[in-house]
């Protein structure tokens, strides 16, 4: 049997990238899973704290994220839906695992390197604004490994931006096994399950991925956006002045991103979408993307609005999820403590 685990940060309303890169795939896995398979989906609040958060907004975003998981079709009878911060075992395991991985390895993670690049003075490379580089930004991949391994997860369905983090989780699991459990492999090495859909890029800067915490709100389409908001954002999306439509992510990132979005909505390949629009213009492509996105989001948006008014129900779902998650994670930690000599 498989243990399928994934997480999402409560850093805002999920966008098309989260939807096609993660959520849709989670619902699909839930539908296909065997009776013995376990599925866990976590709202990872501790990860959100690696960037400054307004406490009131974070509290609202945590609850909204539970509503959104339900709205897209995650079923609390089938999957464990819970807040990471309701399960203390994650932090304890994170400490133990952090002692098995070098600082250098964490400094080589691309997310850390990109934060470092932001903190570097543009004129003087040796000058670094240390105040924006908190320890959590460096070590959160270890916490992510703990999130995964606390349930002895075997499969982690995430977007392709997460590949390096899952590789790290595998290496950490392997390091733990070698240090503490040579005869019997205590942790199985979790497999990355990337989504078939390609990474969705920012609408205004197609060199970056679409992100909840990106500064420019026009860069993303959120799952709760109205038809009018979807229309405005797609209309404003960066493209190019080349005639005709082709799928060429390197030379035409903006146009190709619209094709990726269309393909994710319709289930075709981006190349097939491009072929349909080969002799047409960006206006026609944008109109089709707008219509397809609206069709994809109408139902989850309606369900989210309904669920958002049911705060007691949402709290109950999270509380029940926490009980189930704690039971599993605490069992792992009892064994981990024994193996490490901390029992
Ligand atoms: P933030 O912007 O707050 O850092 P995020 O938008 O990158 O967050 P996460 O909550 O870190 O999203 O990730 C949730 C899931 O969504 C992960 O599985 C991640 O791989 C996936 N994901 C995030 N952004 C994209 C994207 N642009 N395209 C495809 N998948 C994505």
UniProtKB/TrEMBL annotation:
Protein name, UniProt field: Uncharacterized protein
Q: Which organism is it from?
A: Vararia minispora EC-137
């Amino acid at each position: 049997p498989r243990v399928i685990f994934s997480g999402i940060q409560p850093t805002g309303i999920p966008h098309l990238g989260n939807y096609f890169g993660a959520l849709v795939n989670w619902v699909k896995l839930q539908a296909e899973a065997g009776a013995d398979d376990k599925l866990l989906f976590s709202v990872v609040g501790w990860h959100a704290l690696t960037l400054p958060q307004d406490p009131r907004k974070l509290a609202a975003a945590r609850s909204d994220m539970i509503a959104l998981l339900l709205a897209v079709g995650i079923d609390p009878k089938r999957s464990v839906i819970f807040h990471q911060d309701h399960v203390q075992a994650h932090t304890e395991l994170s400490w133990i695992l952090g002692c098995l991985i070098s600082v250098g390895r964490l400094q080589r993670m691309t997310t850390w390197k990109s934060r470092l690049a932001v903190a570097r003075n543009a004129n003087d490379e040796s000058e670094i604004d240390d105040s924006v580089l908190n320890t959590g930004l460096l070590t959160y991949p270890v916490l992510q490994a703990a999130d995964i391994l606390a349930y002895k997860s075997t499969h982690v369905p995430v977007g392709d931006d997460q590949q390096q983090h899952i590789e790290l989780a595998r290496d950490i699991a392997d390091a733990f096994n070698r240090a503490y459990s040579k005869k019997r492999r205590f942790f199985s090495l979790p497999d990355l399950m990337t989504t078939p859909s390609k990474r969705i890029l920012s609408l205004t800067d197609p060199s970056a991925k679409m992100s909840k915490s990106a500064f420019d709100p026009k860069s993303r389409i959120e799952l709760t956006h109205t038809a009018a908001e979807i229309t405005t954002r797609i209309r404003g999306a960066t493209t190019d002045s080349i005639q005709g439509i082709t799928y060429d992510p390197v030379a035409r990132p903006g146009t190709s991103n619209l094709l990726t979005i269309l393909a994710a909505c319709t289930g075709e390949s981006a190349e097939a979408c491009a072929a349909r629009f080969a002799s047409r213009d960006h206006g026609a492509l944008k109109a089709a993307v707008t219509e397809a996105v609206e069709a994809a989001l109408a139902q989850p948006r309606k369900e989210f609005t309904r669920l958002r008014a049911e705060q007691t129900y949402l709290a109950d779902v999270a509380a029940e999820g926490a009980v189930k998650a704690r039971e599993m994670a605490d069992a792992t930690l009892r064994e981990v403590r024994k193996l490490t000599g901390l029992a």
